[in-house]
């Protein structure tokens, strides 16, 4: 099983990327391969004129890594009460050319977030869940709001708060449960 | 002297004539209603017991993106729950009015439902067969089945109603 991590923050010392790395260790402890996607800054601004059969290399790459992943784990900061533009832009590309062909269609996804303020990017997380739902993804329940993020990681980049770590573990497990085969309802004989 | 049992619906096995029947839904949306149909469905009435199903993948609305949205996990979740299922427990009849008690399964969740509808008299069709009609409507609360998507109006009110009418206009043809 392969899980892809996507951070909404590009900053080298991003708290959200640190949060992803921490989640990655929890995935690996469950025997799951975890990779952090690093190509967000290469993706051009969405433009329907560029939305062609052979898309930009960075667009083709994110579509391919999302399709190949069994699940995607997002960590987002909050910019102006919402999702960072770069992350939203990537989701717009992923949702194209149609909802039926969206790389995110039926993909199990989870959302967590960190911010330097008190609220831990809860609005951005809610918006991200909304957008992911609209792209056809299978959004799992669960939220982790890492507020005051500057003080929540030790020198090795690990969460230093057990309560938060338990919450991340819960979301990790919920995402893995969502990737399990599901028996559809059948008409009784 | 024999006892005559009152049958709510004609005895025997009756299968839906798919060409001359429709199964769909209607839900209040903004200032009107949003409606759709299921192209692929099946209904059988056997000795007064009705079983029906509709394929979620066959949902038809006026926009392909909306069809895909309806099949997504925000609504019917077609990948995991490919069918809507209804089974009756009892059908009562008073003149041309029928009351059907049964259970409906959507997204793998089953709820009891009471349907009131109309039944037409059995007739002979031009092809040597017998048929009768049923016009049924069940109102369900979609949030009971995990479909709570909405979009607020500027007033703050939800744009899409929680109550959904599932309708079936059926012609049932006697099977040998």
Describe the structure.
The complex is a heterodimer of chains A (189) and B (176). In chain A, helix 4 links the parallel strand 4 (108-114) and strand 5 (138-139). By secondary structure, chain A is of the alpha/beta class. In chain A, strands 1, 2, 3, 4, 5 and 6 form a 6-stranded parallel beta sheet that branches. Chain A is globular. The longest helix of chain A is centred in the C-terminal third of the chain and has 17 residues, at 162-178. In chain A, 35% of the residues lie in helices and 14% in strands. Chain A has a single domain (2-178), classed as Flavodoxin domain (Rossmann fold, 3-Layer(aba) Sandwich), CATH 3.40.50. Chain B is mostly beta strands. Chain B has a single domain (13-174), classed as Lipid/polyisoprenoid-binding, YceI-like (Lipocalin). Chain B is 5% helix and 55% strand. Chain B has one helix at 64-71; strands at 13-16, 22-29, 32-38, 41-46, 49-55, 59-60, 83-94, 97-106, 109-119, 123-124, 130-141, 160-174. Chain B has an 8-stranded antiparallel barrel with strand order 1-4-5-7-8-9-11-12. Residues 1-5 of chain B have low confidence and may be disordered. At the A-B interface, strand 5 of A face helix 1 and strand 7 of B.
